[in-house]
Amino acid sequence: MKTFEHKILLTVVTRDRINCLNTFLDLATNQTLKPTNILVIDNDSKPDTQSLVEKYIRIDSSIKYINTKRNGGSAGGQSIALTYAASNGYDLVYTMDDDCEPELNALEIVYNKWLIEKDRENTVLSGISKSLTSDEFSFALWKLKKNIFSSGNTAYWSLNEIPENEIINEVFYGWSHFFLGVLIPVSLIKKHGSVNPKYFIRGDELEYFIRLRESGVRLGAVTTSIIRHPQELQGQTNDLKLYYTLRNNTEIRVKYYPNWKYNKPFFRIWLLGFKFLGKTKNITYQAVYDAINEDFSKLPEDVLKGL
User: Fold this and answer.
1) Which range marks the domain in which residue 263 is found?
2) Tens digit of pLDDT for each residue in 31-72?
């Protein structure tokens, strides 16, 4: 097994998905290029998760384990992972969710592409996310006209859809998948900060992508580094996912790209209309109200109580 010339931390965030984690750890520990350490962030799972990780540690002592003792969502877990990498002497962090299934050479490929970047300390590269059962993407690669919320952005759902001139040396620049096999220089974490844990789920990856992009970080997706991931079908959601998506996207849009329509005064007027119609128990009202009032304290049980 090959090793890196840089000190790399491979991280995964998990909560009560032992089958996903078992598959992930089997693939992570058999990468063709071995990371310095693998760090499992356990968002207060049932005891069987820790037992599984301890089994892997007996086989591979490079694995580290942190139980957060509370469910901080993907945002809380990723924040701990990136902060740990920045505080413990690593050069790079390669981070994923527990339902990612990296092909065995995924890390080696993305690392080798990063090595030849001219300004690699200012470059973030991810792999591409493909379906578990086909070569269709699980999450699109986006060609952005201006920003993530601009009209006219182009979504590519397979490699065949991407024009040849938009892939340079097997890299599609302008987009990276956070946190689906993304390789981040620790120097960027020290400069721009870690993931903001306030988002809980559904927004932490978007805000971090925008934060780095708006700071001039070069982003790319390596089209030969494959991360298999379940596809989320359009419309496949629930009240909790909808709440966090709407709350976080509203706050992110107002924070980074306010205009005549997407700003706090506009949303306050919009909320008054919902209140006039007696729809304050509506999930959309609750999400936007909390975003505009900067209330990011609600855990899932709090959200469901308000409906």
Assistant:
1) 239-305
2) 999 999 999 999 999 999 999 999 999 999 999 999 999 999
| pTM recorded for the entire structure | 0.92
Q: Which amino acid is at 284?
A: T
- Residue 127, φ and ψ in degrees, nearest 5: -90, -165
Q: Which two tokens stand for residue 234?
A: 């359009």
| CA–CA distance, 41 with 79 (Å, rounded to integer) | 10
Q: How far is CA 53 from the centre of its chain?
A: 22
Question: Among residues 177, 206, 228, which one ends one of the domains?
Answer: 228
Domain co-membership, 187 together with 254:
no
What ranges in the chain are assigned the alpha helix state H? 18-28, 47-59, 73-87, 106-115, 186-192, 204-214, 239-256, 264-276, 283-292, 300-305
* Residues in a beta bridge with 128: 226
Is the domain of 199 the same as that of 94? yes
> Residue 129: which residues within 8 A CB-CB, separation 6 or more?
100, 137, 138, 139, 177, 180, 181, 227, 228, 229
The candidate with the shortest Cα–Cα distance to 138, out of 126, 148, 146, is 126
Per the domain annotation, does 294 fall within a domain? Answer: yes
pLDDT exceeds 60 at position 236: no
> Does 171 share its domain with 247?
no
Other C-beta atoms closer than 10 Å to the C-beta of 59 total: 9
DSSP 256-268: H---SSSSHHHHH
